[in-house]
Design a protein that fits this description.
- The protein is an alpha/beta fold and 289 residues long.
- 44% of the residues lie in helices and 15% in strands.
- α1 packs parallel to α2 and α8 runs parallel beside α10.
- The longest helix has 19 residues.
- The two termini are 25 Å apart.
């Protein structure tokens, strides 16, 4: 779990995780909180492995956490999400039986309404096909706060990419897993609850999300698909300062992006194109806010 300046929400989540029947070991990376988060965790939850890098690592805080994992699977969790009892045990059983399955992503229930998160429909109706042994629809990406992943698979691809830092960082990791022959799946019998934090800047999140979408596109998509997706985003994102800043940041990062560019093979690009078309029609994925 990664956190920054969300002490009350994190402590609530840790209390819930402590009561899970699976009794999972918990690792928290505090990304430089200034609100006493780390001190509260150390005081109230001495059994939690608390990592304090001293500054904000973004998604790389998960990489740091996984270095301390000693189990075959790692369940990611955000400070405003928590796993439903028995879901972690069920996820481990699914992964035990399917050695080529890298990760399973749970159904996400929005609290306090109890409704499915809009992204659930996207996962349920994934356009990708997969082998019969998959426990649910094949996925092309995942949501870190609702996913249990095979530890060796995460480490094999290097975890989350340092360049993206945070914001839609899962897409690149997922693609690199698929490239190595791993599978990802949505499993509706797993459940994660999400009480969205009010301490979030939706405009800043949109800016980095769009920037990272562009960086991912040029890191992994072949030339023509990369041009097509960039053009589509230019035509369709809101015409505002946040979008302008996202494109400016993306352009500024092109030197390192092009240096690290590794386009995927044609078979995987076909899958990415199916996902892109589905995302265009999705009501859950909009660069607004």
């Amino acid at each position: 779990m990664i956190t920054k300046d969300r002490r009350a929400e994190l402590l609530r989540t840790l209390r819930i995780l402590r009561e899970l029947p699976e009794r999972p070991p918990v690792i928290v990376t505090d990304n430089g909180s200034g609100d006493g988060t780390a001190e509260a965790v150390a005081r109230d939850f001495p059994d939690v492995v608390l990592l304090r890098p001293g500054h904000n690592l973004g998604a790389l805080g998960r990489n740091l956490g996984v270095r301390h994992v000693r189990t075959p699977y790692v369940a990611f969790c955000d400070d405003d999400t928590w796993w439903q009892p028995h879901s972690l045990r069920h996820a481990a059983g699914i992964l035990d039986e399917r050695p080529l399955l890298a990760a399973v992503t749970a159904r996400i229930v929005v609290e306090p309404s109890g409704e499915d998160d809009p992204i659930v429909a996207d996962m349920r109706d994934s356009p990708l096909s997969g082998p019969d042994w998959l426990p649910g629809p094949a996925l092309g990406s995942f949501l870190a706060g609702a996913t249990v992943m095979r530890t060796v698979a995460f480490r094999a691809v290097g975890g989350f990419h340092a360049g993206l830092w945070f914001g839609g960082e899962e897409e690149l990791l997922a693609t690199d897993l698929l490239r190595r022959g791993w599978w990802l799946s949505y499993v509706p019998s797993l459940t994660v609850h999400h009480a969205a934090s009010k301490a979030r800047d939706s405009t800043a999140r949109r800016t980095v999300g769009l920037r990272n979408t562009l960086w991912f596109t040029w890191l992994r998509r072949p030339l023509r698909p990369a041009l097509r997706r960039t053009g589509y985003l230019l035509r369709t994102v809101p015409r505002d300062v946040a979008s302008l800043r996202a494109f400016a940041l993306a352009a500024a990062g092109l030197p390192w992006v092009l240096k690290q560019r590794e386009p995927v093979p044609a078979e995987l690009e076909d899958r990415l194109w199916l996902l892109e078309k589905a995302q265009r029609a999705s009501t859950a994925r909009r660069y607004v806010g």
